Amino acid sequence: MIAVVINLNTPGHYLHWGFIDLSLANLIVIIVMIVLFVLAIALPFPHRRFKRQK
Could you tell me the pTM of the whole model? Predict the structure, then answer.
């Protein structure tokens, strides 16, 4: 179904920085992974309120 919307018969887009060649799809995946990593560190863990045992 997605192949109907997106033409998958074209070559990929590459970014060139000196000797580094990186596909745009890989760059997007790397950025999403970094954002998730930062959010995992920055967001506090949910705290459960413990009741004292009598």
Answer: 0.65
Residue 30, both tokens? 């790397």
pLDDT per position as a tens digit, 1-51? 555 777 778 888 899 989 999 999 899 999 999 999 999 998 877 776 666
Identify the residue whose tokens are 């998730």: 36
Domain residue extents for the chain: 11-42
How many whole angstroms separate alpha carbon 40 and alpha carbon 27? 20
Q: Within 13 A of 17's CA, how many CA atoms are on the CB side?
A: 5
The three-class DSSP label of residue 9 is coil
Tell me, what DSSP letter sits at residue 19? T
Q: Which residue has the tokens 């995946």?
A: 29
